[in-house]
Q: What sequence folds into this?
């Protein structure tokens, strides 16, 4: 054992690391929430184009004013979007007074459109004249009574006015405006901001993690069940809420993290040749989480070479494929695809824009077509063959990005998965429902492309896509899948929702050489295996009766084998015979009639 | 028929489950310890925070009602075979047609002065775990002394170390657990646990436990005259059958309840299994009282046959066991005696790192393989069971050793080194015939 002085020093390093981590994280939050914002004329012109006039009409002070805090800036933008609509209506729309004037001038005689247009020109509102010409052209020369005219023109005016909007503030526009207007260090010196945020977070994280190497190798889950972060204590719940909020912001309100994307601009230019987006930022954050927490995982399980090799693999696929390669492809104007992502996890693979980008590419068309071939090959050959030989683990815990995050950043929460029979029942219904939904939606997408029909089995393809994208793609996979790590364990998405996991699982369950074997009678039913199974499999139930474990949900992370204090569990590939056999003979059941 | 089982440990519960598989008898399991069956061997993990109590329950609570196994929480204070009933400490009475005593063990206390002071405890039951929480709560406990260096002693030491409590272990033997482990394994484990921060005092016994001003244990005096200040004392010098409540019942007892090979006591319709049973005629090469998780489970399976109308004698396969000393795993199959026996020879191999070792024993006269101890390498029960049942020659075992390897994928294979050691030792030139993996296993376990 290390001497007390040494261990005190290491404890200090760990605490300092945590402090640096929190400082970096805190500063990142400050940057994106507490910065100041100002747009000058040129920036505003670039952002708003022809709408700039309207903005200036609505609030002449907006351009050039400084706003303190993201909330103030986004509030001003949102107010501006309403005010500019009013300004636009005043300019292009027909007011009640306009209608009244037209009625009094044209009642009971042929409607004189030209005179009305001339009046508007004279008033200096040619845009209004133009719209009026379009909307009221039918009335030219018609004779109506005052009351008829009043009713009909009012209705027309309402329609005309409704079509007039001011500044349209989409989430993307707000994101771009925030980036452009930011006066923070993230905008002025992104390199320095990078060091003070990501730099500190990474450094602090590693300082907190690396001293663990001074402890003896082996399973050390000491205190996991009492820890506030790991076991749904106050810190864990707070982290869960933060993660959920982060995903909601990422998907629907990216303006709130605009500075974080600014910080990654230099990296984005280097890789893609363009500025960062919230998705580039997300890829970077994801990669950092996988790498830093991958180091933690490797240290924690370093007594197992299986765990070391597997962690190296998921980390490699995250850095190399998900992050670097997809961004570099973009640089070469190829489809920015994560080549290891497989349909139906990659649910947009058959979407028209994706198919077009691969099959009808103008730049390097052969390479783009090869990407399509690879994607199809993985679906029809890769998944069944590799799963037959190695089990679904070849993907879920060795290659997949979701799995990579779950196995690294999610490891501290693996024991929170529900092991009950009811959870298993729910899992089978839910994950296979998502698979059916994914297949149905994709069939509709393909049918629409082939036949041009907008409907499939009586359902609108566009609706199916929208429901799937929102319900499964964003809410289930992102908000719930990762946001719930500290609440329901690290494999919520993989276990209950991932349609690819369902597909891999069907192969693993019915046609595979993979199983977890149990070591005869050596099980002491302690429960470590079940407790630390991230997929909520009651491993012990099999182990204590000497039965091999063949379950569709098993991702082959190998942790049950690693935490077993009696060497009972092993992940093995082999001939399919006796795949689910019970070794009753070793449990004292020989010479008796065996009833399972 | 109403079967009453005293004790909801592995023996009693296994018996109940197997009775249910084979019959519709009414089954009542009575325990004073906990409401539900839990894994006693996992007590240490609750204390260390790896698991909560609920995780140590191998079956969901709904399992018992679904399988019509009635659970009663009561301490039984008296057994009255004449009236066919048991009486609980709260006065409740339970009539039975057949009674199974599976009451487990209690920690040994050898009449040491101060052994009943507050702060002194064993580690066997759920109540012991609660007591340990009380005894080590807060900053009150800085050092603990553990008396007895067996499996429970090392577990207790690991538990306390996990909470930064310094631990001294008094071991009567000259080397850790050398009444079970052979000399070199014992030496390796001794070195291993010493290097993990344990203060191991060999050939040292307990003389007395002294109380402090607060009336709690405050120091331990060893038989070498040394006084060690401490706040907690763990008594882990083995366990004995828990049969105190059977006094006056007419059951014949010695250390435990005396039973036949079919777990029948001297009284009709009363049986005993698990830790509390003592065989009148022990099985060859085995102890009269078997205090191991696995034997308790086997006892339960076998007795269930008898209780369901098919009298069955206990005839277990080759011996096996396992344990973990801190991070060092130990497997044993067959018989590796602690001291060399006539007509036996050994192959001992140890990795230079001191993290792996195997010790195989075989008969000199005919080369028959007798048993293996392995440390830091997992070996497959199924394969060694076959080696032993088939009476395989040591050469055959070594040539096929890789097939028995149960380490995870990518782990370094030590079998070539082990075989090379054997070749050097014997002048033979054997080669490994199998590679690790299921295919090799299937080849080996095919009926001969």
A:
């Amino acid at each position: 054992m290390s001497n007390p002085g040494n261990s005190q020093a290491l404890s200090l390093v760990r605490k300092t690391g945590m402090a640096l981590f929190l400082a970096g994280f805190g500063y990142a939050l400050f940057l994106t929430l507490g910065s100041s914002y100002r747009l000058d004329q040129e920036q505003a012109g670039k952002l708003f184009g022809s709408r700039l006039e309207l903005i200036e009409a609505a609030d002449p002070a907006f351009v050039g004013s400084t706003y303190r805090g993201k909330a103030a800036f986004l509030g001003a933008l949102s107010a501006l979007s309403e005010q500019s609509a009013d300004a636009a209506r005043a300019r292009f729309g027909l007011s009640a007074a306009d209608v009244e004037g037209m009625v009094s001038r044209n009642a009971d005689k042929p409607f004189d459109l030209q005179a009305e247009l001339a009046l508007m020109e004279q008033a200096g509102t040619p845009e209004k004249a133009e719209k009026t010409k379009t909307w009221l052209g039918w009335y030219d020369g018609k004779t109506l009574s005052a009351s008829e005219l009043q009713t009909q023109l009012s209705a027309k005016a309402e329609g005309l006015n409704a079509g007039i909007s001011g500044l349209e503030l989409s989430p993307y526009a707000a994101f771009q405006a925030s980036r452009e207007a930011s006066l923070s260090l993230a905008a002025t010196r992104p390199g320095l901001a990078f060091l003070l945020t990501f730099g500190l977070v990474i450094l602090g994280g590693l300082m907190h993690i690396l001293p663990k190497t001074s402890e003896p190798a082996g399973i050390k889950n000491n205190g996991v069940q009492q820890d506030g972060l790991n076991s749904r204590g106050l810190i864990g719940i707070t982290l869960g809420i933060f993660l959920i909020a982060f995903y909601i912001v990422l998907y629907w309100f990216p303006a709130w993290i605009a500075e974080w994307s600014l910080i990654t601009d230099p990296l984005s230019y280097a890789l893609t040749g363009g500025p960062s987006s919230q998705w580039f930022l997300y890829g970077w954050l994801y990669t950092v989480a996988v790498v830093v927490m991958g180091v933690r995982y490797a240290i924690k399980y370093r007594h197992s070479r299986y765990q070391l090799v597997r962690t190296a693999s998921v980390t490699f696929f995250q850095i190399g494929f998900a992050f670097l390669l997809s961004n570099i492809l973009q640089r070469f104007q190829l489809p920015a695809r994560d080549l290891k992502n497989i349909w139906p996890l990659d649910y947009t693979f058959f979407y028209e824009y994706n198919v077009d980008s691969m099959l009808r590419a103008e730049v390097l068309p052969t390479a783009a077509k090869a990407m399509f071939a690879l994607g199809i090959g993985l679906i029809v050959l890769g998944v069944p063959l590799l799963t037959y030989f190695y089990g679904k683990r070849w993907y879920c815990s060795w290659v997949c990005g979701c799995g990579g995050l779950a196995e690294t950043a999610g490891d501290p929460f693996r024991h929170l998965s529900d092991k009950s029979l009811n959870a298993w029942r729910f899992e089978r219904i839910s994950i296979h429902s998502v698979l059916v939904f994914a297949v149905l939606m994709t069939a509709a997408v393909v049918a629409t492309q082939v036949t041009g029909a907008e409907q499939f089995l009586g359902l609108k393809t566009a609706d199916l896509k929208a429901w799937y994208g929102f319900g499964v793609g964003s809410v289930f996979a992102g908000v719930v899948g990762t946001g719930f790590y500290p609440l329901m364990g690290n494999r919520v998405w993989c276990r209950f929702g991932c349609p690819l996991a369902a597909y891999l699982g069907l192969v693993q369950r019915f046609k595979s050489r993979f199983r977890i074997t149990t070591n005869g009678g050596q099980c002491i039913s302690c429960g470590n295996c079940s407790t630390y199974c991230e997929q909520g499999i009651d491993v012990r139930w099999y182990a204590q009766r000497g039965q091999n474990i063949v379950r569709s949900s098993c991702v082959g992370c190998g942790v049950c084998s690693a935490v077993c204090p009696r060497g009972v569990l092993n992940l093995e590939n082999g001939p399919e015979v006796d795949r689910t056999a019970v070794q009753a003979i070793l449990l004292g059941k020989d010479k008796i009639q065996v009833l399972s | 028929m109403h079967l009453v089982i005293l004790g909801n440990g592995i023996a009693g519960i296994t018996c109940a489950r197997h009775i249910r598989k084979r019959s519709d008898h009414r089954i009542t399991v009575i325990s004073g310890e906990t409401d539900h069956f839990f894994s006693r061997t996992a007590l240490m993990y609750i204390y260390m925070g790896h698991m909560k109590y609920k995780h140590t329950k191998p079956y969901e609570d709904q399992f018992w009602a679904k399988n019509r196994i009635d659970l009663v929480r009561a301490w039984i204070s008296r057994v009255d075979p004449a009236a066919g009933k048991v009486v609980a400490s709260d006065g409740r009475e339970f009539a039975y047609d057949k009674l199974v005593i599976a009451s487990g063990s209690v920690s040994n206390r050898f009449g040491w002065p101060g052994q009943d002071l507050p702060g002194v405890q064993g580690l066997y039951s759920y109540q012991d775990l609660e007591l340990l929480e009380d005894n080590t709560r807060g900053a009150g406990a800085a050092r603990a002394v553990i008396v007895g260096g067996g499996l429970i002693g090392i577990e207790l030491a690991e538990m306390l170390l996990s909470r930064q409590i310094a631990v001294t272990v008094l071991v009567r033997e000259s080397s850790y657990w050398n009444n079970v482990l052979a000399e070199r394994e014992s030496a390796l484990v001794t070195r291993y646990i010493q290097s993990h921060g344990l203060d191991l005092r060999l050939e040292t016994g307990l003389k007395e436990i002294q109380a402090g001003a607060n009336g709690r244990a405050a120091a331990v005096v060893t038989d070498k005259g040394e006084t060690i200040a401490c706040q907690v004392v763990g008594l882990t010098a083995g366990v004995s059958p828990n049969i105190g409540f059977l006094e006056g019942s007419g059951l014949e007892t010695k250390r435990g309840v005396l039973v036949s090979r079919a777990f029948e006591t001297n009284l009709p319709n009363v049986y005993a299994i698990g830790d509390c049973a003592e065989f009148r005629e022990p099985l060859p090469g085995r102890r009269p009282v078997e205090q191991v998780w696995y034997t308790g489970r086997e006892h339960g399976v076998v007795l269930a046959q008898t209780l369901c109308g098919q009298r069955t004698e206990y005839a277990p396969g080759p011996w096996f066991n396992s344990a973990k000393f801190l991070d060092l795993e130990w497997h044993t199959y067959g018989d590796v005696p602690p001291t060399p026996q006539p007509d036996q020879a050994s192959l001992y191999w140890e990795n230079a790192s001191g993290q792996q070792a195997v010790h195989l024993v075989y008969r000199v006269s005919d080369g028959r393989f007798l048993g293996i101890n392995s440390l830091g390498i997992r070996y497959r029960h199924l394969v060694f069971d076959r080696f032993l049942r088939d009476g395989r020659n040591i050469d055959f075992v070594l040539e096929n050793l890789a097939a028995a390897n149960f380490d995870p994928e990518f782990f370094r294979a030590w079998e070539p080194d082990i075989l090379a050691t054997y070749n050097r030792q014997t002048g033979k030139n054997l080669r490994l015939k199998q590679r690790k993996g299921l295919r090799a296993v299937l080849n080996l376990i095919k009926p001969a």
